[in-house]
Amino acid sequence: MQLTTHTDYALRLLIFVAVRRDESPARVQDAAARYGISANHVAKVAQTLVQLGYLDSFRGRGGGVALALPAESINIGALVRQTENLRLLECFGPHSTCPIDPACTLKRALAEAQRAFLEVLDGYHLNDLVVNGDTLHRLLGRP
User: Domain spans of the chain?
Assistant: First the structure.
């Protein structure tokens, strides 16, 4: 399964915010610059994460984003479910037009694989992704 760029950037932004040692909110532009990705895309991702309740947003001078929840409360599987379209095939939806849908073992195999994928991610929280926080901080710190 391939995650969308939106989910990729969401995970990267959460990691960036989680390893900061600064008390001020993280700037989206700084995260984008450190990862070498589009600030506009990261801003859209930040907006999604604010709407989902993972980040708080602060406007004005000194504004930016900060974790809205403790890192140990941010479950990676839940985040992926909220940011991804998990409908792998047309037949995963309620209105399948595939004539073999009732007997299709491919659909069952893919659904099982997807459940296993998400089950593994359910075992991880943001704090698990930043256990090497010192190294990540050095890599993502100011240039």
Answer: 5-140
Q: Tokens 């037009």, residue?
A: 97
Cα-based distances in Å from 5 to 2, 48, 95, 123: 9, 13, 27, 22
Where residue 63 falls among pLDDT bands split at 50, 70, 90? confident
Tokens of 78: 């839940």
Cα separation, 14 vs 26, whole angstroms: 10
Q: What is the mean pLDDT of residues 44-57?
A: 97
Instruction: For residue 64, give the DSSP letter.
Output: E
**What average pLDDT does this structure show over 42-65?**
94
Tell me how far CA of residue 58 lies from CA of 12, 55, 64, 79, 91, in angstroms. 19, 10, 5, 22, 42
For residue 69, give the DSSP letter: S
Average pLDDT, integer, range 73-99: 86
- Fold of domain 5-140: Arc Repressor Mutant, subunit A (1.10.10)
